[in-house]
UniProtKB/TrEMBL annotation:
It comes from the Bacteria. Residues 18-128 form the HotDog ACOT-type domain. Transmembrane segments: none annotated. CDD domains: BFIT_BACH. Belongs to the acyl coenzyme A hydrolase family. This is Acyl-CoA thioesterase. InterPro entries: Cytosol_ACT (IPR040170), HOTDOG_ACOT (IPR033120), HotDog_dom_sf (IPR029069), Thioestr_dom (IPR006683). Pfam families: 4HBT. Residues 134-154 are annotated as: Disordered. Keywords: Hydrolase.
């Protein structure tokens, strides 16, 4: 039976594997496939970038965060239509204006690691688009830094 979901997203209670918290699950659908019938790398990177942006917003308490750097991306295994995948991130270092993270994506059906990225760096920016100090040095597991205004109100 198909998983019950209105979209490809499923926000599950998070799971922790190898020090990484897996926050979001995705259902691989026809529009996510390449010509080989397996998960298209570009779709996966888009999901990871979005996941990292949300993680950075929660950690740095600012809507204005941008992707600065993504290290080597190692696609280790793939996924097929109907597979469920889960995406995990962990902050590895807090800089003055930046946040570095490690990412891993796993296939929940085959249990294989689909992709790992050692270093994704996001930068906290101000209204002018300049790098701005975020003032944090440790991971929060709560929602205590969540922005309290909507982006358009900033
Ligand atoms: C993000 C941006 C404002 C930073 O400007 P900048 O002049 O490079 O700023 P800085 O040199 O002060 O660097 C900002 C931080 O990024 C880090 N950084 C810069 N280049 C980096 C690189 N190649 N890899 C990793 N981190 C890097 C710096 O170490 C610094 O971190 P810290 O303050 O924690 O030490 C600017 O590069 C930018 O707007 N880039 C485009 C971002 C974007 O639009 N991304 C979406 C994809 S198109």
């Amino acid at each position: 039976m198909a998983p019950h979901t209105d979209s490809a997203d499923s926000h599950a209670p998070e799971t922790r594997v190898n020090g990484i918290n897996f926050y979001t699950r995705k259902w691989v659908k026809p529009e996510d496939l390449n010509a080989n019938g397996t998960l298209f790398g570009g779709s996966l990177l888009r999901w990871i970038d979005e996941e990292a942006a949300i993680y950075a917003i929660i950690q740095l308490g600012n809507h204005r965060v941008v992707t600065k750097f993504i290290s080597e991306i190692n696609f280790q295994a793939s996924a097929r239509q109907g597979d469920l995948i889960e995406m995990g991130l962990v902050a590895t270092s807090f800089g003055r204006t930046s946040l570095a993270m490690r990412a891993e994506v796993r296939n929940m059906i085959t249990r294989k690691v689909i992709l790992s990225i050692e270093r994704i760096v996001f930068v906290n920016i101000d209204e002018e688009g300049n790098a701005a100090p975020h003032g944090y040095s440790t991971i929060t597991y709560d929602r205590d830094r969540m922005p309290t205004t909507q982006p358009a109100e900033d």
